[in-house]
Amino acid sequence: MKYDIKNISLAKKGKLRIEWAMNNMPVLNLIRKRFEKEKPLKNTRVACCLHVTTETAALALTLKSAGANISICASNPLSTQDDVAASLVKDYGIPTFSIKGEDNKTYYKHILSALESKPEITMDDGADLVSVLHKKDYGFMPMGGTEETTTGVIRLKAMANDGVLKYPVIAVNDALTKHMFDNRYGTGQSTIDGIIRATNKLIAGTNFVVCGYGWCGRGVAMRAKGMSANVIICEVDPLRAIEASMDGFMVMSLSKAAKIGDIFVTTTGDVSVIRREHFLAMKDGAILANSGHFNVEIDIPELKKLSVKTRIIRDFVEEFTLKSKKRIYILGEGRLINLAAAEGHPAQVMDMSFANQALSAEYIRRHHGELDNQVYPVPKDLDERIAFLKLRSMGITIDKLTERQKKYLSSWQEGT
Ligand code: ADE
């Protein structure tokens, strides 16, 4: 069959898919071309703890073209695309330590392998590299790091507040060109994609419960609504709850939603969001997935205690049967479903996220001497440059303020 590419090697499949992703990452491609000429990371050792996907490969090739020596490990045991890891090693000679489905011990062994290069820059998604580096003395300390995700930034800010952070880190997540698009449209689409690939369930007409109405929750809710689900939001922040209501969603406590939900998605970044009392209230057949960084949002150990039987019924779908014979389904071990059962955010949004990573790494190389051991935002001019380039790559031109308008906006006198 023409479309059957089972017979090509894993690395070859990965190489083709990396090419496909790069076709959709115009901003990163521009940066890569400049890096090829200017070599701003020449001989800089960079360790990346990221989801090993086609988009991450595009970032890795960008850093390599800048002259960096990089090593990669996974930032989640279930998010690696094995064909990409194979291609990175075989086709591009980039040491990559990750296997989809690796156990926790192997996951941390791989982090240590990536750190063997004694990196001068760390690039994290969830702050595991930073956290391992702060647990004991490895005889070196990076000049700086970058952090990709909300959960990682929260961990790093807690470390900085406690005065224990030992090197400066740039919070890539906080760039507008990152979280407004990656967290919202990326998580929105890829989470629904993961749930559908795992279950093949119809979303239309379901009671679809989203826990957390941050950028990720908003994206998931928006896309579920677009597929005609009855979307229910559970949120602890009053402002966000009002926002969810005025965005047209039903808002209620999880104890109420638990009784009527068909599909539940957690996007809070907090622990034990769906727990014993909720499992007990749920309908037979409820489906639970997580899209937050860590697998702590659904209390799976507690669900196990309540269960008399468990079995894997489809790829990434585990059935838990309770004493009452009620069945509850957990997708992808409660790990980020968009990367466990699907391919993560599409390249078009990772383009901006990873443009921020690449430019932040360049910034650290140039400016690390001026930075304290704190968490820094991506410099505003980098964020704005990425927005400008993205818009241009989308073929969109926008209006400019006239001189008269600029003057009006900067004056305090009343308009006439
Ligand atoms: N995080 C979410 N989606 C991703 C992707 N496609 N690649 C790398 N990290 C991601």
Q: Supply the helix-strand structural class.
A: alpha/beta
Mean pLDDT: 97
CATH superfamily of the largest domain: Adenosylhomocysteinase-like
Helix content: 40-55%
Count of DSSP strands? 15
Compute the CA-based radius of gyration.
Answer: 22 Å
Count helical runs: 17
Q: Please give the CATH class of the largest domain.
A: Alpha Beta
Relative strand content: 15-25%
| Ligand names | adenine
Describe this structure in words.
The protein is 45% helix and 16% strand. It is an alpha/beta fold. The protein folds into 2 domains: 5-178 and 345-393, Adenosylhomocysteinase-like (Rossmann fold); 184-340, 3-Layer(aba) Sandwich (Rossmann fold), CATH 3.40.50.720. The chain has an 8-stranded mixed sheet, with helices on both faces. Strands 3-2-1-4-5-6-15 form a 7-stranded parallel sheet, sandwiched between helices. Helix 1 crosses helix 3, helix 2 (26-38) packs parallel to helix 3 (54-65) and helix 8 (176-199) crosses helix 9. The chain is globular, with a radius of gyration of 22 Å. The mean pLDDT is 97. The chain binds adenine (ADE). The site of adenine (ADE) has 10 residues, from helix 3.
